[in-house]
Amino acid sequence: MTDSHSSGQHKDREAAAAEVRRMWQPTPSWSQPDPNAKPDPEPVEEVEDVEDEQPDALSQEFPGDAWSQPPATPATPAPAHAAPVSEPWMQPAPEPVDPPALSQTAQQFFPQGIPGQHPPQPERQVSYRADELLQALPLPREAPAEKGMRSVLRLRPGSSERNERIARATAATAFRRPVTITIANPKGGSGKTPTTLLLAGALGQARGGGVVAWDNNELRGNMHLRTHDTNARSTVTDLLQAMPMLTQPDARLGDVGAYLRHQVAGQYDVLTSATTTYSQIEAKDFDQIHRLLSRFYKVLVIDTGNNEGSSNWREAMKASDVLVIPIKWKSLSCAAAVQMLEELDNQGPDAQRLIRRAVIAVSNGPGDVNKEVEKQLRPYFESRAAAVVDIPTDPHIAAEGPLDHSALQPHTRRAALELAAKVAEQITIALNVPR
Questions:
Q1: Environment class of residue 303 by beta-carbon count within 10 Å: exposed (0-12), middle (13-18) or buried (19+)?
Q2: Whole-angstrom distance, CA of residue 97 vs CA of residue 50
Q3: In angstroms, rounded to a whole number, what is the distance separating the alpha carbons of residues 232 and 217?
């Protein structure tokens, strides 16, 4: 009983293997009959036993190897008038045919399918475009924290430091052309000059230079009192006198820099206003200076005077990509800003777009905050402008001396960087919208 069962199982296994070999038997083109070949003599039939002539059910299901089948009748040679048979290599390539499925008996011995055969894989569409390949590259790993205990433990930065990195990257946005930022509020003492220097320094540090702060007061500003004198006592008057030389094709940044003050801590340059009453700046002067500075600097931060009717004030508004309005939470400072916005609102679509992209910079000195004014007017400015940035009170700014960015409180530098990021965002919007 055991021997017969083992013998039957052995026959089943051999039959399954024979089926696999049959399914894998190649049919190469060279196996086609040769038209010039002579027919082989008919083989002599051998007498087999009766037992061999009666195959069992398993042998009927698995007929065995192809080479174990009786030889087929040889093909008769084609007549002379028949069309010539093409060579095998001239035959069209056969289309790929899916391998036949195994029977149930064969699947018992080969549950994984035919050995060595894998299901056809779909053809992958490989792209070799440079931009797609670069996008497929893994992103660089985030740099570890640089502040606090996280920096000691070499951990990832916290949310505050990560937001600061995002703000610095936004402030360093590469604009496709030189851009102009105008700081304006008709009320004197509203913080225009400190805001101009804070913004220029934050942009200069984030961008690594390429920023100039320009005191565009028509007569006499005070930027020369709020910046370090780097052995350059020249003013805008001297720059205008040297304009024929500076506008030559071979003029260099160093030639223009001789008339400006370089602020080392903020990495920006300063062009101070005229200090005498005989050198009032007008619209034509503004245009010449603006073209010259736009030739050598990427970002122009323009401080303005208190006279909205002066021609250079209006030219600054026309050249602006973004408007920054410094205020204090005091009645007079806010009232002047509101009146300026109403005046600009009546000057056409360009001025109205400038209002929508405006950024409010709130910089209060000691004792400048009126809570009732802030409660009433903060919602108004938030609805009219793109953003409102609060700059905390800083003793260094309140001292009214030269503004040194390295002497500012950390939270003041952080607020100045946030202001720079908000301004850069609005500049990007302005550049993407046709004027």
A1: buried
A2: 39
A3: 19
Amino acid, res. 102:
L
**Cα 358 from Cα 181, distance rounded (Å):** 10
In a 13 Å sphere around the CA of 419, the CA atoms on its Cβ side amount to: 33
In contact, 109 and 12? CB cutoff 8 Å: yes
Distance from C-alpha of 360 to C-alpha of 338, rounded to nearest angstrom? 11
Measured from the Cβ of residue 316, the count of other Cβ atoms closer than 10 Å reads: 25
Query: Which residues are 388's β-sheet partners?
Result: 360
Q: Are 391 and 196 a contacting pair, CB within 8 Å? A: no
Beta bridge partners of 270: 213, 261
Specify the residue for token string 């433990």.
153
Question: Among 338, 401, 335, 340, which Cα is nearest to 370's?
Answer: 335
Distance CA 70, CA 60 (A): 15
Give the model's pLDDT for residue 142. 81
pLDDT at 230: 76
Tell me if 307 sits within 8 A of 313, measured CB to CB. yes
| Torsion angle of C-alpha atoms 228, 411, 381, 177, degrees rounded to 10 | 60
Per DSSP, helices labelled H in 62-136 are 104-109, 130-136
Residue 151: pLDDT band with limits 50, 70, 90: confident
For residue 29, pLDDT beyond 80: no
Give the number of other Cβ atoms within 10 Å of residue 239's Cβ: 21
Question: Which spans in 297-387 are helix H?
Answer: 311-319, 331-345, 349-356, 371-384
Contacts 24+ apart (CB under 8 A), 431-434: 431/175, 431/176, 431/177, 431/179, 431/321, 433/353
How long, in residues, is the chain?
435
DSSP string over 378-424: HHHHHHHSSEEEEE---HHHHTTS---GGGS-HHHHHHHHHHHHHHH
Whole-angstrom distance, CA of residue 429 vs CA of residue 423: 10
Residue 323 buriedness (CB in 10 A; 0-12 / 13-18 / 19+): buried
Contact 236, 289 (CB under 8 A): yes
Cβ atoms of 218 and 225 within 8 Å: the answer is no
pTM reported for the whole predicted model: 0.69
Which of the 8 DSSP states describes residue 146? -
Q: Is the pLDDT score of 334 beyond 60?
A: yes
Is residue 284 within 8 A of residue 164, CB to CB? The reply is no
